[in-house]
Automatic annotation (TrEMBL):
PANTHER family reported for this sequence: GLUCANASE B (PTHR38165:SF1), PTHR38165
Entry-linked CDD domains: GH64-GluB-like
Coiled coil regions in record: none
Name of this protein: GH64 domain-containing protein
All copies of domain GH64, residue ranges: 1-369
Length: 371
């Protein structure tokens, strides 16, 4: 596994003002928070500032140049890393005492980046592999991002991202859905100059006055009723506990020896609260992603074994229309729409929009959508 990796950043937009920033934890420097320097080679380590929200002492924006241009940078091993892309304006990163890097936020209207057209993809490069993905867990950006990975011994891997007009099309689909069911899907659309700038995940709906309280509860009740009288459900943990039988008894979902209370809407959208809170039990922690994904995809009533296949996803109402439309409006149907969107059957087709390999040679990040 290499100690470093080349990343090609391609500007496929119509703008000559496109900038990249690469942040993460420098594995070979004790896990310190770092930003790749503007030259695309060295690392900038923010120092402890005298006050909160202090500016960085160095501009780490990497200009991508004219439309069609590619800039190649080199990264060391990094964990929890992101490649941020902004169009027409630079991003503002700040630092708090610690030091703690303050990254752009789409949920804080006072954030200096709140009206900037930006997005990001995520990656980790360590001794074992490169893993990268396009994340929509927080929001869908206006600026499309696509990935291509070349390896020493395997085939190229591609994640297509959205088309150049993908956000506009998804916004229109959310407006139509809001008209159908009366739920505030349209409020998830954040606009600038009367044009969609980004779409927030329904998990963050309360930040824009889009409450989904009570939304999934009728579906959960339906699942509970069926599993109380149809105890044929199986959950493949895809780990040491193997495949476990599941049934509802005494108003709890029993999966093997583990018991789960009914999740509410917030639990299903976030996948990390209520019955989906992980803990010390390895078996329970292996079950949670599979049942959380089945609820998020409203697939529980479509198959008797989970994880199930994509043809069972989002067939009912209520369902997670944000996640459904993320997949519909990505050119290859792939993208991380919720926390456990990487859950798939054994030998199943990945839904999460990831590339990974133990022998990476070049990761290409293309922004702006296909020509």
């Amino acid at each position: 596994m290499p100690n470093s990796l080349q990343i090609a950043l391609r500007n496929n937009t119509a703008s000559s003002q496109v900038f990249a920033y690469i942040t993460g934890l420098a594995i070979q420097h004790g896990g310190q928070r770092c930003i790749l320097k503007a030259d695309g080679k060295g690392l900038y380590f923010p120092q402890n500032p005298p006050a909160i929200l202090s500016p960085l002492t160095e501009d780490c924006a990497i200009p991508l140049g004219e439309p069609g241009n590619t800039v190649t940078v080199e990264i060391p091993q990094m964990a929890g890393a992101r490649i941020w892309i902004s169009r027409d304006n630079k991003l503002t990163f700040l630092v708090n005492p610690g030091p703690a890097l303050v990254e752009p936020s789409v949920l804080n209207p006072s954030d200096p980046n709140s009206s900037v057209d930006f997005g990001f993809c995520e990656f980790t490069l360590n001794d074992a592999q490169l893993y990268a993905n396009i994340s929509y867990v927080d929001f869908v950006p206006n600026i499309p991002i696509a990935l291509n990975l070349k390896t020493e011994n395997g085939p190229e891997q591609n994640v297509a991202g959205t088309a150049a007009d993908g956000l506009d099309n998804m916004a229109e689909a959310l407006r139509k859905q809001a008209g159908k069911d009366g739920r505030p899907w349209d409020k998830l659309i954040v606009s600038k100059d009367d044009k969609p700038l980004r779409i927030l995940n329904a998990t963050h709906g309360n930040a824009v006055g889009a409450s989904f309280d009570g939304y999934f509860e009728p579906y959960v009740d339906e699942v509970w009723r069926r599993l109380a009288r149809h105890p044929k459900l199986k959950v493949n943990t895809q780990a040491a506990p193997g495949t476990l039988h599941a049934k509802v008894k005494e108003d709890q979902l029993h999966v093997g020896d583990e018991k789960f209370d009914k999740p509410n809407t917030a639990d299903i959208l976030g996948c990390n609260s209520g019955p989906f809170t992980t803990g010390s039990s390895a078996t329970r922690n292996a079950i949670i992603p599979r049942i959380a994904a089945a609820f998020a995809r409203t697939a529980f009533l479509e198959a008797d074994e989970h994880p199930s296949h994509p043809q069972t996803f989002y067939l009912r109402d209520p369902t997670n229309h944000y996640a459904r439309l993320v997949h519909e409006h990505n050119l290859d149907g792939k993208g991380y729409a919720f926390a456990y969107d990487d859950v798939q059957p054994d030998e199943g087709d990945d839904q999460s929009g990831k590339v990974n390999a133990g022998d990476p040679v070049l990761l290409t990040v293309t922004v702006g959508g296909p020509n």
